[in-house]
Amino acid sequence: MLKIRLARAGKRNMAFFRVVLTDHTRASKHGYKEVLGFYNPFTKEFKLKDLEKISKFVSNGVQFSPRVEKLMKANDITLPAVK
User: What is the mean pLDDT of residues 33-59?
Assistant: First the structure.
């Protein structure tokens, strides 16, 4: 099953996270299929690249991790309807 979750990047004490599409059994740091956005916890900046592509993934059964879902709700990001 595919999931959209966070993958840690950056230096020690300067964490930076990528929002990635990955298989739920693989390590999110190495085994991701696509980078979909980023999250910077220091500036609280959360951006997703292509919402239409993400909504297409979700309509095909991809699930969000709890943290990504919480970040989307906190930033009032809603997915467009897929045709």
Answer: 94
Q: How high is the pLDDT of residue 83?
A: 66
CA 3 to chain centre: 8
- The answer to whether position 80 is within a domain reads no
> Whole-model pTM?
0.88
CA angle 55, 82, 62 (to 5 degrees): 35
For residue 47, the enclosing domain spans 2-74
Domain CATH number, residue 33: 3.30.1320.10
Q: Is the dihedral of CA 33, 35, 36, 38 positive or negative?
A: positive
**Hey, is 41 helix, strand or coil?**
coil
Residue 9: exposure state from Cβ atoms within 10 A (0-12, 13-18, ≥19): middle
Task: Name the domain count of the chain.
Answer: 1
